[in-house]
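YM 10:42: Acetolactate synthase small subunit sequence, as discussed on the call
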Amino acid sequence: MSALKIKKGSSKHSAYNLRPNFSDVQESHTLAVIVDNEPGVLARVIGLFSGRGYNIESLTVAEVDHTGHLSRITVVTTGTPQVIEQIKAQLGRIVPVHEVHDLTVEGPSVERELALIKVAGKGDDRVEALRLADVFRAHVVDSTLESFVFQITGAPDKIDAFADLMRPLGLVEVARTGVAAISRGSH
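YM 10:58: structure's back
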């Protein structure tokens, strides 16, 4: 009887449990990739994603060190934990890549995005759009008698929520920059 209890309690170490514990849960991860700022690097990084069927939800790129000619690529992607690990490993093997950071697992980080949102409406819809813009701290950057263009910054969820509220009020167009992210703290 005690042998049975030991067997039940140690099932993860059992020779009969040889199947690895892979998760099928899709997770969203924000990756910061430091690369040489030279022609073709972005194409190689994007080629890694498209060639293996990985999805990119957001992509931003900018030079961050003019003297060192380094750029930072911020990619938001979704996959199982195993796929995310595979993406990071494959990114690290690309020659002009200097660093790959998974901001999602490395600790707290700050993510922001900028969006321009055009809303066309008259009367009460126009007044409601302005009221909601005030609540979301969106700024009017262009105005005509028929439309507004709002500028909003914040976490992607905030921008999604604002756009969803603008749809019934006359949402015409949305332009988004993609996520810019950085880790919190001194490191």
